[in-house]
Write a structure and sequence with these properties.
The chain is of the alpha/beta class and about 220 residues long. It has one domain: TIM Barrel. Helices cover about 40% and strands about 20% of the residues. It is built from 8 helices and 10 strands. It has an 8-stranded parallel barrel with strand order 1-2-3-4-5-6-7-8, surrounded by 6 helices. It has a two-stranded antiparallel sheet with strand order 9-10. Strand 3, helix 3 and strand 4 form a beta-alpha-beta unit. Helix 5 packs parallel to helix 6. The longest helix has 22 residues.
Length: about 220
C-alpha cells in the first residue's frame, strides 16, 4: 500500500539482489529503489526487480525507477513488480506521470531557478530533487544547489537526494527539512556495491535528524 503521508522516510536506491534488499530492511531502511535504466551501473532487469519485490513484500516499500521507458514496458514492469512507488527520472511529461496517480513522483535535477519552479509545480503529492547532470540520472554523488533545494523543500513535501552520505545527512535534514532522503553512491563501498555499515549509519543519522527536526518544529 502506498504511504499516504510520507514522513521521516529513508530510501536506498540501486538494490540489485534479494539478499541486499533484505539487509536494507533489516537495517531500518523504509524503501529500496529498483533501477530499470539500462545505462546505469545499478540497473537490473524487470524480472529481477519482480523477484526482489516478491521476496521482501511486507518488509518495506518498493520504488521502481524508470527513465524514458515506453508505456508498454513500464506497464509490464508495474504489473510484475507491483511497486509502492514509481520514480520517474527521465524526460516524462506531467501527463505521463499523472497517469499513475499518487504512487508516482517525479525526480528533478536542480540546475537553475527554472528547475526549482518545475519541481514546485509538478503534479503529485511528492517530488524528488537531485543534482542536475547532462548525462546521468541520479547516483552522481553530487548535491543540488542548496538554495534551490531549500526553496522546493519549503514549498511542498520533498524527497532530498544528491550527494547524501552518513556524514552529511543529519545536517542536510535539519537544514532543508525534507520529508524523506534518498541515497545510492553515498552508501557504497565501490560503484554499485553497497556497504551495509554505511547504510546502518545513514539510517541512524537520518532517523535522529528527523526526530530533532520534529522537536524543533513543535
Amino acid at each position: 500500500m502506498v504511504t499516504t503521508v510520507m514522513k521521516d522516510w529513508v530510501k536506498v536506491c540501486g538494490i540489485q539482489s534479494v539478499a541486499d534488499a533484505k539487509r536494507c530492511f533489516d537495517a531500518g531502511v523504509d524503501a529500496i529503489g529498483l533501477n530499470l535504466w539500462a545505462q546505469s551501473s545499478r540497473s537490473i532487469s524487470i524480472e529481477l526487480a519482480a523477484e526482489i519485490s516478491q521476496a521482501v513484500k511486507g518488509d518495506g516499500e518498493i520504488v521502481l525507477l524508470t527513465v524514458n521507458h515506453s508505456r508498454e514496458d513500464l506497464e509490464r514492469a508495474v504489473e510484475l513488480v507491483m511497486p509502492d512507488w514509481i520514480q520517474f527520472h527521465g524526460d516524462e511529461s506531467q501527463n505521463e506521470t499523472s497517469a499513475y496517480g499518487d504512487k508516482a513522483f517525479k525526480a528533478i535535477g536542480l540546475g537553475g531557478m527554472e528547475d526549482a519552479e518545475t519541481a514546485k509545480g509538478w503534479p503529485g503529492k511528492l517530488v524528488l530533487v537531485d543534482a542536475r547532470d547532462a548525462y546521468l540520472r541520479g547516483g552522481t554523488g553530487m548535491s543540488p544547489p542548496a538554495e534551490l533545494a531549500k526553496m522546493v523543500c519549503a514549498f511542498r513535501p520533498t524527497i532530498l537526494a544528491g550527494g547524501l552520505n552518513p556524514d552529511n545527512v543529519y545536517d542536510a535534514i535539519l537544514r532543508f527539512a525534507p520529508v524523506g532522503v534518498d541515497t545510492a553512491s553515498g552508501v557504497e563501498a565501490s560503484p554499485a556495491i553497497k556497504d551495509f555499515s554505511k547504510i546502518e549509519r545513514f539510517v541512524a543519522q537520518s532517523k535522529d535528524a528527523f526526530k530533532k527536526l520534529e522537536l524543533n518544529q513543535e
